[in-house]
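During the reporting period the student researcher (J.K.) took over the structure-prediction task from the postdoctoral fellow and processed the backlog of single-chain submissions. One of the processed entries is reproduced below for the supervisory committee.
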Amino acid sequence: MTQEYKNGRSNEYATRSDFCRIYVEQTNSLYLLSLLLTADPQKAEQCFLSGFDDSVSNNSVFKERAHLWARRSITLNAIRLLCPRPNDENESNEAKPSRLIGKAPGKVPAEVQAYPNFARIVGLNAFERFIFIMSILEEYSDQECSLLLDCFRRNVINARTAAIRHLASVVTATETLPERDVSDLAGVNYANR
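J.K. obtained the following structure tokens:
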């Protein structure tokens, strides 16, 4: 039984089966989001599963927004798990080997192995990686990022700028690419969200 608002939107809530369908249909995309945020296959799996649990237990999400809620649940779980903070002195963007690089092919999804720029994103420090993914790839506003990460908007802007500069410097130092959108630099097709 669906009621329609005046603007034609449904007010029907997503069910457990709706979220199960979303997670089945978008497994690769959702797991890739987890993996990019955490930069660790075990933590990515934990975020993915926690995001699924949070999604199916939430009964107040409109059906038309359920796929966005699934992605948001994963992001929130990654934030809780890693607690990325601005100016973390223990991390830098120096050329550090990723824990994903050199792992057995079974540990990293085939979709990720096909993207040479994946290691560049994973090589960012945790805060810059979160800001890059959330603000550029997931299109969160600066205000949303600052609220979710419990930091100032200026931290968000500075981290995004630093991440883009770092990614651009790595690209220009290693290869010449034709003009591309920043999301192409990420090597991820987010159009199928």
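The committee noted the following: DSSP finds ten helices and no strands in the chain.
J.K. will present the remaining backlog at the next meeting.
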